[in-house]
Design brief:
single chain; alpha+beta; 2 domains; 4-stranded antiparallel sheet; 7 helices
């Protein structure tokens, strides 16, 4: 997919004195191999060898700045990635799946624009500070899109924004929604019908 080149182009900045793409790549490898915090990534890097990535170059601050840069360019990266994915997908993209999961986090305080909110955890079946991750994937299991929602959002409020965005990015001709009661409401059904009739 040329993901490294795509990130390198999107994250290029004359103001940044470090390679943000390499920092993102480092954090992704850590997530896959031995998930840890940003500080934990630096400790983990001391015990592994990664070609092209030197531990001395990265600091906690630089990892955080790389994440900020990624978030700033998120929409452009997702659009470019969806264009690269299209040739790999079923021509009609006739089946896609959407699901949500809650991800618990630890934080002392809630900030006004923080996505970490107290909500009903799917793991604990009770309140937890968390955020909600929505993921759309093809029938072949290829991730197409995602969104991070506040931890206290009702599942029913996530379906339409994700469906609208997916319909704009991918050539889906016919929509059939099969969902559990957490995603459906009478209002949602009416709006889904409006979206798919156009």
């Amino acid at each position: 997919l040329g993901f490294s080149a795509l990130l390198r182009t999107a994250l290029r900045s004359s103001r940044r004195e470090f390679d943000a793409e390499a920092a993102i790549r480092l954090m992704v490898f850590n997530r896959v191999c031995d998930p840890d915090s940003k500080l934990g990534v630096l400790r983990w890097l001391e015990g592994v060898v990664m070609p092209g990535i030197s531990g001395e170059v990265f600091t906690h601050q630089r990892l955080l700045r790389a994440m900020d840069a990624l978030m700033d360019k998120r929409e452009a990266i997702q659009r470019a990635l969806s264009k690269r994915l299209l040739p790999l997908l079923d021509q009609e993209l006739s089946v896609v799946f959407y699901d949500l999961t809650t991800i618990r986090v630890h934080a002392e305080h809630e900030r006004p624009q923080d996505l970490r909110r107290f909500g009903r955890s799917k793991e604990l079946h009770g309140p937890a500070r968390q955020f909600v991750l929505g993921l759309i994937q093809s029938a072949d299991g290829i991730p197409l899109d995602f969104e991070v929602f506040p931890g206290n959002i009702a599942e029913v409020k996530t379906l339409l924004p994700m469906l609208e965005r997916t319909l704009k990015r991918y050539p889906i001709e016919r929509v059939i929604v099969v969902a559990d009661r957490g995603l459906l409401s009478l209002d949602n059904l009416a709006e889904v019908e409006q979206l798919t009739v156009q």
